[in-house]
Amino acid sequence: MEEVTLNAAENSARKKRLYSAVQPTNALTIGNYIGAIRNMVAMQDEYDCLFAIANMHAITVRQVPAELRKNTLAMLALYMACGLSPERCTLYVQSHVPCHAELAWVLNTFTYVGEMERMTQFKDKSAKHADNINMGLMDYPVLMAADILLYNADVVPVGVDQRQHLEITRDIAVRFNNIYSPTFVVPEGVYPKVGAKVGDLLDPTKKMSKSSENTAGTVFMSDDKDTVIRKFRRAVTDSDSEVRYNPEEKPGVSNLLSIYTAFSGKSIEEAEREFAGRGYGDFKLAVGEVVADRLAPVQKEQARLLADKEYLNSVLKEGAARAYKIASGTLSKVYRKIGFYQL
Ligand code: TYM
What we know:
Blueprint (H helix, E strand, L loop, with lengths): L1 H12 L3 E6 L7 H14 L4 E6 L1 H4 L6 H18 L7 E4 L5 H10 L4 H5 L2 H9 L6 H16 L4 E3 L5 H17 L8 E3 L34 H9 L17 H14 L3 H7 L5 H27 L2 H30 L5
Parallel strand pairs: 1-2, 2-3, 4-5
Bound molecules: ligand 1.
């Protein structure tokens, strides 16, 4: 009982904690930006934030080592170019804090095989990588639970494709807390109102994904203006010509409207009014332009940052030290509760 009171006092004394992570695979898409990074940037002052580069999750599908290394630093530079500041939040690489793997092992013993087999992303990825259905692919959500629970995060901003992983994280936390005593904060997922699932431009009911085979429907954060405009010009719409938000009846147009509002800062209603009576051609061009114009300075800043590897390394070093301090505290508490003999 005493412990619960103490935790509550601690909680009210500190800013609420926020945790999120992105895998450093390929170039990121505007789906990653709209669904996650944009919110991370918006929330960084209100919360005590940690943002990881999830390279341990990335190896659940085969990676080219040199590319994984390069993408890790590129990911950090992109985080910063999008507006995450190492002075205001903790930016670090997941594998630099060994507690993630250690807690994941413990949490594995509180997670059932059946629960993991039911995960939609596991089923999708198993179908896609049928030649490499490794244990890591299946165990992915437990590692994600370890990420979040190590830091006692109150909130986790992610896109809706991560909702199921967030739910299992909550289940594992509650299960552990019930068996022992309150140990983990049970985290809340935060999903954007618009753009929580940005669709592929050619198949808008499907998630825009960095690993799609056909990249014509995927806009990468690294795409130049011509490429962005070309991709939006070819985006599927529908047979009428009304720019109106209705995801069920008009998935293509609604997807474009979400992207437009996310990048322009305008509301859906404002955008609908702006394009009333204008054809889809005009509308698609406007969406392409607003996206390209926002991406250009981000790309420039990312390149500038990438030129100073020493500085980026220093950010990661400091980030890992800050993260380790918190994570190792949680881990030793867990080890004590489960009965690991400690020296
Ligand atoms: P990842 O790297 O696949 O994606 C990073 C973030 O981008 C969001 N996202 C999208 N949002 C909207 N529309 C889309 N088309 C779209 N595609 C991706 C994802 O929801 C995610 O928020 N398992 C995570 C990384 C992770 C993590 C964590 C996240 C590891 N540990 C702890 C939060 C907390 C992943 O693979 O994200």
